[in-house]
TrEMBL record:
Residues 134-302 form the ABC1 atypical kinase-like domain. It comes from Eleginops maclovinus. Appears to be essential for maintaining mitochondrial cristae formation and mitochondrial function by acting via YME1L1 in a kinase-independent manner to regulate essential mitochondrial structural proteins OPA1 and IMMT. The action of this enzyme is not yet clear. It is not known if it has protein kinase activity and what type of substrate it would phosphorylate (Ser, Thr or Tyr). One of its GO terms (cellular component) is mitochondrial inner membrane. This is AarF domain-containing protein kinase 1.
């Protein structure tokens, strides 16, 4: 849909056919949403726990965005000032709808949205600037959910494992969040805990994205983003395996051990699983925090040999 502008001259010839297809897709999405809402009302379940609700939300958003692109340029001449103004507005509307979808479905959707927000070289500026906010709007799991994951994976309560555990996370991302804690022997650790539903939802979410992307490609043959789904299918299982992350951290520590200024936190394997990564807590600041650098006398222009 992002490359539609380059072929807008012939677009009006395809609109009736595509609009007919889109009407069928929209009708199906509406039926899915309605039936899902009725089911939810009767069962009193959490929206985000239901794949049918997540799919209905994604399908409806995809249908709305596709219809917007298919109809917005119908009476606009390609190359005119009006055309470029309309295109920018459609990009922005679509990006905002996509952002809202990612925030609503969370997990894998936010991860993919963050990836899209970094594609400055490929996507229009309206998309990248809108989706970049997903880096700072990652959801947080409740303390009850964090305790549940720790209980399930480590088989113990927080009080049995830690003397102190900070409830407010030091950071939250699309797949996990990090808490500071103190072990019974006095060592301070950072414990990265995966959001409880991400593991079970990720496979379904990727299949959902694959179906929707193929549907958009069917409507708009110029839309060629299947590679993004392929990347998610390949990398998401790896990112959700925190034991692999810990192993990679140790490999990096060994490879770069000759750099005395570089600190790679030690992994506490006895308190780590596929969904939990416990490591040595290291004080520090963001690499882009100029105030932190200035306060600690770090010269950002200095190179280390």
């Amino acid at each position: 849909m992002m490359r539609l502008g380059g072929r807008a001259r012939g677009l009006h010839l395809l609109v009736p056919l595509m609009a007919g297809r889109l009407f069928k897709v929209s009708a199906l999405a509406t039926a899915v949403c309605a039936s899902s809402g009725f089911y939810l009302y009767n069962r009193k379940l959490n929206l985000d726990d239901l794949s049918v609700i997540r799919f209905g939300r994604a399908a409806a958003t995809t249908a709305i965005i596709s219809f917007d692109y298919l109809t917005a340029f119908k009476h606009v001449e390609y190359g005119t000032e009006e055309y470029w103004a309309v295109r920018s507005k459609v990009h922005l509307r679509s990006a905002e709808r996509l952002r809202d979808l990612c925030c609503a479905n969370r997990g894998t959707f936010i991860k993919v949205g963050q990836h899209l927000g970094a594609l400055d070289y490929l996507l229009p500026e309206e998309y990248t600037s809108t989706l970049k906010v997903l880096h700072s709007r990652a959801p947080q799991s409740s303390m009850q959910e964090i305790q549940q994951v720790i209980r399930e994976d480590l088989g113990k309560e927080l009080s049995e494992l830690f003397v102190a555990f900070e409830e407010k996370p030091h950071g939250a991302a699309s797949l996990a969040q990090v808490h500071k804690a103190v072990l019974h022997d006095g060592r301070t650790v950072a414990i990265k805990v995966q959001h409880p539903k991400v593991q079970s939802q990720s496979v379904k979410d990727i299949v959902m994205m694959e179906v929707l992307v193929k549907g958009v490609h069917w409507l708009c043959p110029d839309f060629a983003f299947m590679w993004l789904v392929d990347e998610a299918k390949k990398n998401m299982p790896l990112e959700l395996d925190f034991l692999r992350e810990g192993q990679n951290a140790e490999k990096v520590a060994n490879m770069l051990a000759h750099f005395p200024f570089l600190k790679v936190p030690k992994i506490h394997w006895e308190l780590s699983t596929k969904r939990i990564l416990t490591m040595e807590f290291a004080e520090g600041g963001q690499v882009n925090d100029r105030e932190y650098m200035k306060k600690h006398g770090i010269n950002v222009n200095e190179t280390k040999g």
